[in-house]
Design a protein that fits this description.
With about 230 residues, the protein is α+β, with helices and mostly antiparallel strands. α3 (about 50-60) runs parallel beside α4. The relative contact order is 0.14. About 30% of the residues lie in helices and about 20% in strands. Strands 1-6-4-3-7-8 form a 6-stranded antiparallel barrel. The longest helix is centred in the first third of the chain and has 26 residues, at about 15-40.
Length: about 230
C-alpha cells in the first residue's frame, strides 16, 4: 500500500523476495490460526464433541449418566392360595432382558408385582401383555410366567448421547446451581437417573427452605414408575 501511494511498482510474483517473505510469515501464522480455531471449538459448549465435550462438561460438574432400567408392574399367576416372592426374584423377557422384583411380598393369583430391569437401556421397556418367564421354580405354586400389566415397563433409557449431554451443560451454564437454589435441586434430580428427562422444582411448597420436585420421562404420559422415582 505504501509503495502504491508513492507510485512504485513492487514485484510480488512467485519467487520474488517479497513473495518469499510473505510465504515464510504465512507458514508460521496459519498453523497458529488453525490451532486457535481448534482450541476454541474444544471449549465451546455449542461445538465441542466426543472426549472434548465430556471433558468440558466435567469442568462444570455435568457427567454422562449411565443407562437406566425400566420398571413397572407384572401380573403373576398363582396355582393355589398365596405365595411369598422374595426381593430380587428374577424373570426374563423373550429378548433376554432380565428383571427382578423390587421388594418381598405375599401375593394371591392375578396380583401385581413391581419389577425393575437388572441392566439399563431403552430395550428394557416392554409393552403391556409381554410375557416374562421366572428364572427359578423355587416359589411353590407360582406359575412360571408373568404378564406385563397395562402400565407397561417404562423408564428404560440408554446412556446420555452427545446432544443430551450438551443440553444438560447448556442448562447448567444458563442457570448455575449453587447454595441449594432451584437449579441445584433440579440438577440433583436429573443426575439421579437417565430415565429422568426433566425435573420441575417448586420452591417453598412445604414452608420456607422446602422444595417439591416433579420428575418426568421423555415420552408417553411422562409418568415415571414408583421404583424409578424412589
Amino acid at each position: 500500500g505504501g509503495a502504491e501511494r508513492r507510485g512504485l511498482t513492487v514485484n510480488l510474483l512467485p519467487g520474488s523476495e517479497f513473495y518469499l517473505r510473505a510465504e515464510a510469515c504465512a507458514m508460521q501464522v496459519l498453523p497458529i490460526f488453525a490451532n486457535n480455531k481448534l482450541g476454541l471449538r474444544a471449549v465451546s459448549p455449542l461445538d465441542a464433541t466426543g472426549d472434548q465435550l465430556t471433558e468440558l462438561c466435567s469442568v462444570f460438574g455435568v457427567t454422562k449418566r449411565a443407562a437406566a432400567s425400566a420398571a413397572g408392574l407384572v401380573t403373576i399367576g398363582v396355582v393355589s392360595g398365596s405365595v411369598t416372592i422374595p426381593a430380587g426374584y428374577v424373570c426374563t423377557a423373550r429378548d433376554g432382558s432380565k428383571y427382578e422384583t423390587v421388594s418381598a411380598g405375599t401375593y394371591a393369583d392375578a396380583a401385581l408385582v413391581e419389577v425393575i430391569a437388572t441392566v439399563g437401556g431403552s430395550d428394557t421397556n416392554k409393552g403391556s401383555g409381554e410375557v416374562l418367564q421366572w428364572d427359578s421354580s423355587s416359589v411353590a405354586y407360582l406359575r412360571q410366567t408373568a404378564t406385563v400389566s397395562t402400565g407397561a415397563l417404562t423408564g428404560g433409557a440408554d446412556e446420555d448421547d452427545e446432544e443430551t449431554l450438551r443440553g444438560r451443560l447448556l442448562k447448567r451454564l444458563s442457570e448455575p446451581g449453587q447454595g441449594g437454589n432451584r437449579s441445584m435441586v433440579q440438577a440433583l434430580a436429573e443426575n439421579a437417573s437417565a430415565s429422568v428427562a426433566d425435573a420441575f422444582v417448586y420452591s417453598g411448597v412445604k414452608g420456607p427452605g422446602s422444595y417439591g420436585v416433579c420428575v418426568v420421562k421423555a415420552d408417553g404420559d411422562r409418568t415415571l414408575s414408583s421404583a424409578i422415582v424412589n
